Structures are given as C-alpha cells and as structure tokens.
Amino acid sequence: MGTKFAFVTGGVMSGIGKGIVSASTGLLLKSRGYSVGIIKVDPYLNVDAGTMNPYAHGEVYVTEDGGETDLDLGHYERFLGINLTKKHNITTGQVYFNVITKERRGEYLGKTVQIIPHITDEIKNRIITLSKDTGVDVMVIEIGGTVGDIEGLPFLEAARQMWVDLGPDNVAFIHVAISPILSATGEQKTKPVQHSVQELRRIGIQPNAVIVRSSRPLEEESRYKIALFSNLPKESVFSDHDTFTPYEVPLILESQGYGKFLTKRFNIEEREADLASWEEFVNKLKSIDKQVPIAMVGKYTKLKDSYISITEALKSAGVFTSVMPKLIWVEATDIENGQIKVEDVLQDVKGAVVLPGFGARGTEGKIKAIKYLRENNIPMLGVCFGMQLSVVEFSRNVLGLKDANSTEINPNTPYPVIDLLPNQKNIDYMGGTMRLGASKINVVKNTTVYDLYRKEIVYERHRHRYEVNLKFLDKLIDAGIKVSGWSDQGLVEFIELSKKDHKFFVGTQPHPEFTSRPLNPNPLYVGLIKAAI
Ligand code: GLN
What we know:
Layout: E1 4-11, H1 18-30, E2 36-42, H2 54-57, E3 61-62, E4 68-69, H3 72-80, E5 89-91, H4 92-105, H5 115-134, E6 138-143, H6 153-166, E7 171-178, H7 191-202, E8 209-214, H8 220-230, E9 237-241, H9 249-255, H10 258-266, H11 276-287, E10 291-298, H12 308-321, E11 324-331, H13 332-336, H14 342-346, E12 351-354, H15 363-375, E13 380-383, H16 385-397, E14 405-406, E15 416-420, E16 435-443, H17 448-453, E17 457-464, E18 466-468, H18 473-478, E19 481-487, E20 492-497, E21 505-508, H19 523-532
Parallel strand pairs: 1-6, 1-7, 2-5, 2-6, 7-8, 8-9, 10-11, 10-12, 12-13, 13-21, 14-15
Antiparallel strand pairs: 3-4, 15-18, 16-17, 16-19, 19-20, 20-21
Helix pairs in contact: 1-3, 1-9, 4-5, 5-6, 7-8, 12-19, 15-16
C-alpha cells in the first residue's frame, strides 16, 4: 500500500493536547502492526525552535540527527518508541527559505513566485518526500496552531490539495477542539467546537473525525450536536476528556473505537491492537502510591513545559522503580536574589536534578544549590549546564579556585573551568550551530555511570557550546572528580564523585532525557531515583 496521511488540526485554542492526540493516533496504528511516521508543522517564521526562549515555546527537543525541534516531537518519540529526524518538524521558516533560495537560483525563471502553488508545493513535497524516504504505512501530520490563524493557512491549503491529489482513501482529517464547561451551570458547551469545524469547512476541509477535549466525558447530547453540525455520524465524534495522565489518552480513544475508525477510514485491514505493555505502564503509573521528593533546580520553572522530557524521564523511572518522584520546583533566580534560602527548599528532598540552561540569570543560585546537595550527600544529577555548574562549584569550593566560572557567564574569569568548544570559537550564525544530536560516548568501567548503563558505548544527544576545560582536568581528578564518559574526540561527557564521597553525584554533558522512553527509561534517571529511594 502507498502511504496514508492523517492530518491533525486544532480548533478554538492552542494547548489542548493536539500533540498527545497525534501521538495517540500514531500509537493506535502502530499497535496494529502498521509502520508510522509523524510530522509536526509549526507555522512560525523561525527556521527551527532552537533560537526561541523556553518561555516562548517550552522545551527545545533534540532529535538524534541534531534537529532542534518542537517539544511535540518528544511526545511522538515517547508514545511511538521511534526516533524521528529534523525533517519531521516543518516550519514556515524552512519552507520560505527554500522557496526563496530556489527563486534566487533561477529555478522558477520567468514565473511569479506565489504562496499557491509554490509555497504549497514545497509543503506537499516535504511531506511526500519524507514519507517515501522513510517508507511508512501511515504519516500523521500535526498542524500547529489553531484553524483560522493566518499563519496556518498555506499548510491547510496544502493538506486540502493532498486530499484532491491522492484521493479520500489516502488522506484523513482529524480535528481536535475544546468543549468548555461553564462553572456557573456545569454545562458542557459545544458551540466553540461547532464554530471551529465551520472554519475548517470554510477553507474546504471536511473533517472525518472530531476529537473533543473537555474536563469531563462528552455527553451524548453534546456528541449528537457536534456530529450534526460537523456533518458527521455520531461514531466519528470522540471524547478526549481529562485523564490522570496523558499516557492514558490512546487507551481512552481506543475504547471508543478510534483505532478501528482509522483503519476503516483508510480502507486498510483492521487488526487487533496490541496495547498490553502500554496498558500495564499506565496502570502502574496510576496505582503507585509511594513517592520520593525530588528537587528540580532551574530557571524556567514557571513554565513546566520547559523541562518536559526530564519530567517524563523521571516519571518513567518512577514506574520502573515503583516509587514516583514528587517534583519540588526550585527557582534558581529566587535563591540567587536571596528570596529563598537553599536549606529551606532542599533540606527535605531526597534527590535533585540541576537543570539545563543558558546565560547568567540564576547561575549563582544553581551553584549554591549544588554546594548544598554535595555537602549534604543528597543524590543529584546535573544535566548539561547543571553538569557544567557542578564543575564550577567543585572548582570554587573544593579546589579553592576563587571566581572559577564558565566563560559563558564570565568571559574574564581567572579560572575558566568551562570554556567554549574549539569549533564554537568563530561562529557567526546562532541558529543550528551548537554541538547537536547523538554521538558516541565511551563509558569508563568501575563507575556509577557504567553500573547504570552496563555498556561501554552509549549514544546520547547533545545541545551545547561549552565543555569542561581539559586544562583543569588533572586538578579536578586529583581532588576527587571522576570522568565516567568520554567522546571520541576526548571531550568530557559524564562526571561523578566516587561512591565513598557521595551517594550519587553525577553530571552529564548530553541530555539523557531525550532517549528515555516510558517503557524503557534512561538509566541515569533510574539511577537518581534509586539513589533517592
Ligand atoms: N549553556 C551551556 C552550553 O551551551 C549548556 C547548554 C544546556 O544546558 N543545554 O554549553
């Protein structure tokens, strides 16, 4: 069979869990033995998410091949257990960049270059080429934003054209919209959903299914109304109500026949879905009552989505160890400003993650937290910037190198224990130029990190410009830092303190959360939770 395309659109407002529905759509098909790919379309002009502040956009998810992508790719990889690429995140920026480059090259010589057909052709081409290259049975395409946004129009137009080009058996439209509950009357209102479907139909797209987000299950009356106004049978309207965990969404949709609906819609063989291990994971996640308090020390703590892969990695590690992490968010800027005392926030935690980050704000707060965690023998995992700052802390307070720092924070520090990677010195462009993506790490035997991975070679994903300065390494090692992982080029990838000095003090330059999967959590996060228990 040729590839089938499922477009997922959103209505009424953003942030209603369209990414989870898209991932669930993929999972229900995958669990029936179909191979699935999944693309996120982001209708902004940035070429990728890498240049955006986490507060604007949440976490930047890093793919194996070094793409700096939307956090939805993290949902997709976790739900589907697959590795996607930078090509699975299409932005308006990339599309225009390519079309304008082609125009300058003369590829459209003699023509007026327009949104239709040149931009829409470029969009279709990207989706179809990727589907051909990866050979998947089904490609799910989530269109970011909300129907009615000006930015999204060329993508919706391209989707509409694909339906005409490829025929109705090969293209499906799934629309996700929210039905609010009025607090005064407790009534489930369907009008916003109706209007968003209307908007979609106005631009020529008739959805094949409407998935309704709501805080409670969709009432029969609401289902009936939405079906009627959407020009659909009632069986094509599905309830996506609040759940204990987003991992439950595929199960809820499956129980309403959504998987079967998809195979029927695409005219492909209906097979029994194998969701046993997923169900087991969800049941365990819901039933574990033991908890361990884990501090999350960072500076984007007001938007939890900034660290979503880390919270998900900890959750999966919790299911694995049967003790769930209870996250205590600690804003490093507040420690730095003296608004909160480090001992007040950390004295009761059993473990901590010192989170990744960029720039000076909050740095001194993080360093104070690391000092407390080190001196009080509290298990901690420092991730990327968190690892770099643990080297800074150790240099200052154990080696006595006053004002030691990363040159990212203080270019004039007398002790640049963290410094720019050699190939980062002459960079003009900020976009896509960090050390990015998965690379080989040689794990050193007889270390905590080796005990956790039980492998001499691992691949983890990177996103950084700075590294441990090898000039200071001998001093650090003499004072008790162990290097537990090296890159082939001799860069420090993992560090730790020996078990006799500290229960669990591990720093990782790469981001192990990006390879963590619900059914297969990353060993370093499991290690932290075990040490905390
Ligand atoms: N700012 C640091 C660097 O660029 C760490 C980056 C991170 O935490 N992802 O090296």
